[in-house]
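Q: What does the predicted 3D structure of Four-helix bundle copper-binding protein look like?
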Amino acid sequence: MSTVGQILYTHPEDPEGVGAKITACVEACGECAQVCTVCADACLGEETVADLVACVRTDLDCADMCAVTGRAVSRRTGEEDDVLRLLLEACAEACRKCAEECERHAGEHEHCRLCAEACRRCEQACRELLAAL
């Protein structure tokens, strides 16, 4: 288990049955934010960068949404479930759109394939936590 997972499990505000989903979501958001940032940078380095403009944009939008969502989900002492639900929905949608865009380029660019996979994992983690709240 990661250090993030360990510290989340020690949190006194661990709602019964939701802790594992919170941990999975926070970790997936962190990974996805990093992967999307790297994918955007890799797209900028490709010879066909003009064909990857939409991919760079969705990568960066997704990275930002994942970073914000991961931080918000980590804060457990407040009762802002309405805001958290909105963030989780927005993050899942950003991940879905980014995955779809990266999948369009996955046959040519390995970084896009890997990014799409990370986005799908994060989308799923957000939706699972959303269902548990």
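A (community wiki): The structure tokens above were generated from the sequence. The chain has one domain: 18-132. Helices lie at 3-10, 19-45, 53-74, 81-105, 110-132.
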